[in-house]
Design brief:
With 356 residues, this protein is of the alpha/beta class. It is built from twelve helices and 14 strands. It binds nicotinamide-adenine-dinucleotide (NAD). Catalyzes the oxidation of 3-carboxy-2-hydroxy-4-methylpentanoate (3-isopropylmalate) to 3-carboxy-4-methyl-2-oxopentanoate. The product decarboxylates to 4-methyl-2 oxopentanoate.
Length: 356
Amino acid sequence: MTNEILILPGDGIGPEIMNEAIKIIDVCKKKGLEVILRYAKIGGDAIDTFGVPLPNETINMAKNARAILLGAVGGAKWDCLDIYNRPEKGLLKLRKSLNLFCNIRPIFLYKQLSEASSLKIEVISGLNIIIVRELIGGIYFGQPRGFNNYSGIRCGYNTCIYDETQIRNIGRVAFEIAINRKKRLCSIDKANVLETSMLWREVMCSLAYEYKDVELSHMYIDNAAMQLVREPKQFDVIVTDNMFGDIISDEAAMLTGSIGMLPSASLNNEGKGIFEPCHGSAPDIAGKNIANPLAMILSLAMMLRYSLFNTKLAERIENAVSNVLDWNLRTYDIAGDFKTRIISTKELGNMILEAF
Ligand code: NAD
């Protein structure tokens, strides 16, 4: 198997936070990690150079790589382009072309950050949830889609479609994760209204026969959105479709204080994946050296765990993050109370290296 890691810094704060992750990879290499870094362009960065958000060269390099580390894509500069040529399309196409059907988002609250959340400490302390989101099906990819004009009145339309194989594949991953945790899985859908959700629920129930040790429950998405802020600790593992997962994982992110803390992994059947922060390119703070690099650094830890099977180095990174938070050093988004010192993106990256 190749030991190439493809680095896609992308747009906005992407390159800044990626620099901090690369510093850690360099130290890991000195400690024996055998990887070769390759670099390519995606998103607005690729549009500016090649005129397209996902050049063929990037797709080929991604196919050859063992894992991909991505910053973020997008920004106002490219919002004027038609919807099919915007930076975000490049990322969607890359996920699809690598068959990355499974998105894993750990929603973990570092105890040092309890005060950074807008929720009461007793509601969120000890929070540790995993959201498993189907990533290459549903309304984001369904055909037909487009715009139409009926007698002078414009309309836009999309198609939400899932087949049972897609649902079974993501369901299986979620059951496997649940069986190795608290053996509780909550499937989130809208089965009281949508046919795709009715099929989703049926397939999840059929899988439950194979995983008799796992307690499967179901919740409608509207209720789940409410329960996540009312009593988030009732959840352990959540499985849901592409659009519902997109929305509730951002909601869940805020339980942990900042979206700047949350990593994610998007995987295919062979464990190959794109590892990236849950947040976007944050154009409002790009270039200011104030972005939180921890979601990017924790995405690197996920890459070491899921694609390179190096749990030891992954744990060292996670412990280093915890130590730096213990030292009360923070970027502004997780500043908390007067005891903390606000430092820059680069300084926080250097502190992680010191704690590593
Ligand atoms: P965003 O996640 O970029 O930003 C939302 C808010 O969170 C902003 O106030 C931002 O400053 C803050 N934030 C995000 N990451 C942070 C960090 N690491 N440290 C501190 N603060 C942080 O979402 P948005 O503003 O809706 O989108 C901006 C652009 O990113 C858009 O073009 C969007 O399409 C794109 N986007 C890309 C991805 C991706 O690359 N996977 C995901 C979501 C959005």
